[in-house]
From TrEMBL:
It is a single-pass membrane protein. One of its GO terms (cellular component) is outer membrane-bounded periplasmic space. It is found in: Cell inner membrane. This is Energy transducer TonB. The lineage of its organism: Bacteria, Candidatus Eiseniibacteriota. Residues 149-239 form the TonB C-terminal domain. Its main location: membrane. It comes from Eiseniibacteriota bacterium. GO terms for biological process: protein transport; siderophore transport; transmembrane transport.
């Protein structure tokens, strides 16, 4: 009889060592698979009632047509009566009643001094109490050397040339005289001043007299005339 030799004795290395090393892993895998199977079983038993669909019986109601009462018969309704127009009464015609005329107002008392519409005495110069007399305000004139704001300068509309004095003509005197004039809101010259630097003593009075006769369109500011100063040059020449 032939004697057999065990595999671990025939192969002392290799497979036996692998089997010994794999036993713990095999045991662990078996435990994990068993636990997973138990969990799946428990879940299936718990969720089975929830997954089952409960079918409720359907109830139906049957109506017997023979028990329905017939509809009520139609009733003839009379049409509404037409509206009858009510005749209007003829308007009463009033009888005119004479109205007495209004009494005339009493005649006004005669005015003293009047007779038949003609004045018999001197006219009255008395001012009624309800009439207020207004005195025009005095024109405000700026003093000499004051600058006045104007939007449009005065323009001369009447120019008068000065008369050459006989004494200055005989002496052969010539020169320039600057005259400052104050022009009022009416365009008239209100004041005359001879320049202290540009003047000739023998010719000053002639220039001053001519400047007083000038007439201007007054200067304007804010669409109203204003009084202001203006300068007029007078040049005296013999030839």
């Amino acid at each position: 009889m032939r004697r057999t030799t065990p595999l671990y004795q025939f192969m002392p290395y290799g497979a036996p060592e692998l089997m010994e090393a794999g036993r713990p892993q095999m045991s662990r895998a078996l435990l994990l698979s068993s636990a997973a199977a138990l969990v799946v079983y428990a879940l299936s038993t718990q969720l089975a009632p929830l997954l089952e669909r409960k079918i409720e019986p359907v109830t139906s109601t049957v109506i017997d047509v023979t028990t329905i009462s017939p509809p009520p018969p139609l009733v003839n309704v009379a049409p509404p009566a037409p509206a009858v127009a009510v005749p209007r009464h003829a308007p009463a015609i009033g009888v005119p009643v004479p109205v007495p005329e209004a009494a005339a107002p009493p005649a006004a008392p005669p005015i003293a001094g009047l007779s038949d519409g003609h004045e018999t005495g001197p006219p009255s110069t008395a001012v009624p109490n309800d009439v207020t007399t207004t005195t025009p305000a005095a024109e405000v004139l700026p003093p000499f050397g004051t600058h006045v704001y104007v939007e449009r300068l005065p323009e001369p509309i009447k120019v008068v040339k000065p008369d050459y004095p006989d004494m200055a003509r005989q002496a052969g005197l010539e020169g320039l005289v600057m005259v400052h004039v104050l022009i009022g809101t009416d365009g008239r010259v209100k004041d005359v001043r001879v320049d202290a630097k540009l003047h000739v003593p023998m010719l000053d009075e002639a220039a001053r007299e001519a400047a007083r006769q000038w007439v201007f369109v007054p200067g304007m500011a804010d669409q109203r005339p204003v009084a202001c100063w203006e300068t007029i040059p007078f040049r005296f020449r013999l030839h």
